[in-house]
Amino acid sequence: MTDAAMTPENARAPKSLKQEDARTKKRNASERRFRAYGIAAICTGLFFLLALLSAILSAGLPAFRQAVVEVPFTLTQEQYDEAEEAMLKTAIYTGYFITSLSDTMEAEGVEIEFDNKAVERLLGKVGGDLRAYYRDNEDEIGEQIGFELAASSRVDRYLKGTFTREDLQGGNRFFMPEDFDLIDAMQEAGLVKQVFNWNFITGVDTGVDNPGGAGIGASVLGSFFMMLVVLVLSLPIGVAASIYLEEFAPKNRFTDFIEVNIANLAAVPSIVFGILGLAVFIQFAHLPQSAPLVGGLVLTLMTLPTIIISTRASLKAVPPSIRDAALGVGASKMQAVFHHVLPLAAPGILTGTIIGLAQALGETAPLLLIGMVGFVARYPDTFVEGFLEPNSAVPAQIYNWAARSDAVFTEKAWGGIIVLLLFLVTMNTIAVILRRRFERRW
Amino acid sequence: MNDMRIVERDLDQNDVKIAAKGVQVYYGDNHAIKDVDVEIDDKTVTAFIGPSGCGKSTFLRCINRMNDTIDVARMEGNILIDGEDIYDPKVDPVQLRAKVGMVFQKPNPFPKSIYDNVAYGPRIHGLAKNKAELDELVEKSLRRGAIWDEVKDRLDAPGTGLSGGQQQRLCIARAVATEPEVLLMDEPCSALDPIATAQVEELIDELRQSYSVVIVTHSMQQAARVSQKTAFFHLGNLVEYGETGQIFTNPNDPRTESYITGRIG
Question: What is the CATH number of the domain that holds B223?
Fold first, then answer.
């Protein structure tokens, strides 16, 4: 026995343990190399993530800011009466505003000539806004108020630096070269400021004549209604299907076939689900086109495999000893599953569901096919209409904006991406928190 | 075997509780139990011993039809409890398992409170009419599980937070709470330290007053200490079955002798 052990022993020179032999050196070197590869891979990933985030944030954050012009304004009772008796009421109000604006600028030591056309180009239909305000708030006549007017999208972009004098060739009905001087003058007089653009969050889509007013609100609501449909349908169906397959179904060819198909379904391109939805839900079942209900149904089909797979994985992860314990005290199969296995699998199921929902929230391709990319410029009036009226979804709205020529819409598209990412991050955070919370309990 | 008292142990003649006739079990193509006939007495501790993989746990799981939950397992032959064939198609395994309780090798309390662990069986079988009765039943079961004094102040604490020995005694309390007539124990002490083992063994001896206890064990000392009858399994065969004292001191079969003296196994 000793002889046999001695022979290969000679190959390794008997040296001090403090000295690395050649083999050990080689092994250590390869481990060091492997670690270096790992760190390099992580750094590359982080670099791309940072590049992506900085691109999104730098291009999208301006969409959340909005330039406004604040002009102190006083309307006397006589002016009000005079304007209300005139034929062209809003023109008179515009006149008052221009007087007030030039007075304010003169007081600040800035002098510039401008007409009411220029004011309309820069600040919209000021006269109408003023009149509407005073008709609603008659008690404020005679008092000085600071009137905030949203600047037009080109002014906004000029102030943000994405639109310069060189970009404008000759001018058009939206903007003239001399308008730049007026903006500069107003800025010098300290009338221009940046505020948070609530309209982007709450507003609806707009046409080319008012790109600055476009908001993502209606499509957020459309996405919300779709997610509601997805949650209500895919969670019970998915969980019931997985419990049956995992706990009750006999293991035979047929269930194997179903299993393979569910796994395959998870890998089917989403556009296929879109065309399926178009054929089945719209052309065959005659559900309304472009409706969040149909979008939700299509996304349910997409989400089901994700939920089934994650639910089955978490059911499998419940130790069999728990099932034995329940069966051993005389619980039926169903009692064992519903009293013991399902509560233990719940965090995993919840996580899977939320991740499936987040996936569905970001899905665009199937929505293109069922027509959820239309121009939607109003909110649904009732809850039911929210499901049945044509609407858009956040990613479809982003796609829509990105395809338009006006640069303002491009900015809005980036802003929409930030909104979408915020939703996704929130949902994933909820998934992590739920998992932590429930896992600690057991 | 230094414990020679086992030969002097008196054996009351008890009625037969479980009678197995020609039991065969297959796991797929693997013939795990080969033609086992055995009669297990009421109010007796019967130990199943034998090397790993000899089929003693498999046979134990046949007695409360836990093998039904394994898809590939197939069983032939009859097992009668009180003269009734438990593999009769009319028998509901759920009802059977309420009558034949089981304690597993690894302590497996539910991840619920200690109270709920014990109360679960009575609840699903409707053994208590109201909360007071249930409380009483839980206390009685925990006392029989010899764990009441340790947990009476923290019945709301999770059962999984107890030590290994306490968990196993909790599982025994849970099993007796459904008031079974037969208690099957699959190596109940293999995960326990000697002190917890001693407590569980003491408990098994007490449980003999009311139940027919069948225990699978790898420890021959344990079999000798707690059982009145012993069955030796080898390679799926029931080699020898008889009074514990006789098996350990004067085995009939050379294989039994080899096993208890440590030459095989």
Answer: 3.40.50.300
With a cut of 90, say whether residue A156 has pLDDT above it. no
The 3-class SS string of A254-311 reads: HHHHHHHHHHHHCCCCHHHHHHHHHHHHHHHCCCCCCCHHHHHHHHHHHHHHHHHHHH
Weakest mean pLDDT among A13-17, A294-298, A372-376: A13-17
Which residue in B64, B94, B174 is closest to A332 by CB distance? B94
- Contact list in B for residue A255 (CB cut-off 8 A) is none
| Full residue range of the structural domain in which residue B95 is found | 4-260
If you measure CA to CA, which chain B residue comes closest to A343?
Answer: B111
Confidence of residue B7 (pLDDT cuts 50, 70, 90): very low
- Are residues A327 and A255 part of one domain? yes
Q: Does A114 share its domain with A229?
A: no
CATH of the domain at A428: 1.10.3720.10
A347 in any annotated domain:
yes
User: Number of Cβ pairs closer than 8 Å across A and B?
Assistant: 67
Distance from CA of A333 to the nearest CA of B (A): 8
Among candidates B245, B206, B213, which has minimal Cα distance to B48?
A: B213
**Per the CB < 8 Å rule, is B109 touching A335?**
no
Nearest CB among A327, A331, A340 relative to B66 is that of: A327
The dihedral over CA atoms of A292, A297, A299, A304, expressed in degrees to the nearest 10, equals: 150
What is the band of A284 on the pLDDT scale with cuts at 50, 70, 90?
very high
Range of the domain at A147: 64-196
Q: Report the domain count for chain B.
A: 1
Average pLDDT over chain B, rounded to whole?
Answer: 87
> How close B178 gets to chain A, by Cα (Å)?
7
The predicted-structure confidence for B190-203, as pLDDT tens digits, reads as follows 877 888 888 889 88
ipTM: 0.84
Say whether both A150 and A238 belong to one domain: no
Q: Would you state the structure tokens that stand for residue B63, as one six-digit string?
A: 């007695």
| Helix, strand, coil abundance in chain A, percent, nearest 5 | 70, 5, 25
Mean pLDDT of A219-239: 93
Contacts of A241 (CB under 8 A, 6+ apart): A304, A308
Mean pLDDT estimate for chain A: 86
CA distance to partner chain A, nearest, from residue B245 (Å)? 31
Partner residue opposite A329 with nearest CB, options B71, B111, B120: B120
- Quick one: A122 and A227 in the same domain? no
Domain-located, residue B265? no
Q: Over the stretch B217-263, which tens digit does the pLDDT of each residue have?
A: 988 889 999 999 999 998 889 999 999 999 999 899 999 988 888 87
pLDDT confidence band for B13 (50 / 70 / 90): low
Query: Side by side, which strands form the sheet with B30-41?
Result: B30-41, B16-27, B73-81, B84-85
Residues of A in contact with B174 (CB under 8 A): 325, 329
